[in-house]
Amino acid sequence: MSAERGRFEGSLVVPRELTGVPLDRFLANSFPELDRASHRCLMREGRVHVDGSPWTVARPLRRNAVVTVQRDHDAPVH
Question: What is the rounded average pLDDT of the residues 7-24?
Answer without folding.
Answer: 89
